[in-house]
Amino acid sequence: MNFKLSNSVTSLPGIGPRYQNLLAQLKITTLRQLLFYFPSRWEDRRQTYTGRLIKTHYIPTRSK
């Protein structure tokens, strides 16, 4: 499969209208924009925490 950087992101397999809309919110419409998109922030999830490290004065709640 040949892709041009000027092609729409929908030319990629698996990118349909739903993901096209999500990418459009990030102002990504072409493959070039997708390739050169670098997030401005991220969450480091390499370290996990056990339940013992959670502060005890917080009461866990669950909403409906």
TrEMBL record:
InterPro entries per the UniProt record, alphabetical: NA-bd_OB-fold (IPR012340), RecG_wedge (IPR033454)
Domain called RecG wedge: residue spans: 14-48
Name of this chain's protein: RecG wedge domain-containing protein
